[in-house]
Amino acid sequence: MSTSTLARPSRADVRERILVAADKVFTAQGYANANLSQIAAEAGFTKGAVYSNFDSKPELFADSRRIPGTREARRDDRRRLCPSLQVTN
Fold first, then answer.
1. What is the pLDDT of residues 30-64, one digit of tens each?
2. Other CB atoms closer than 10 Å to residue 65's CB: what's the count?
């Protein structure tokens, strides 16, 4: 009998999947309506995995907006989705 084991994703891969999921959820629902459980589910992880990579929702939001190649578009999104945050770049 053969058993197969799934390789555990690297921390960098987990973080990247969470960032992509966060970007998707924040864009679709806005900052106020998005929650970490939704982001975790979208990424395929538990909320604990989100908290092991990010200290808070504001940190995750900021980091998700730093996905390379989208800086200018993300600045406009941040202003639209979360007007209470000061966006300088």
1. 999 999 999 999 999 999 999 999 999 999 999 99
2. 23
Q: What is the CA radius of gyration of the chain?
A: 15
> Is 26 a member of any domain?
yes
CATH number for position 33 = 1.10.10.60
- Spatial neighbors of 75 by CB under 8 A, at least 6 apart, are 65, 87, 89
**Closest to 31 (Cα-Cα) out of 75, 66, 83, 72:** 83
- Could you tell me the residue range of the domain that residue 16 belongs to? 11-74
H helices of 1-87, in order, are 11-33, 36-43, 47-53, 57-64, 71-81
Does residue 81 fall inside a structural domain?
no
Give yes or no for a contact between 85 and 78, defined as CB atoms under 8 angstroms apart: yes
Structural tokens at position 10: 């690297």
pTM, two decimals, is 0.70
4 domain residue, yes or no: no
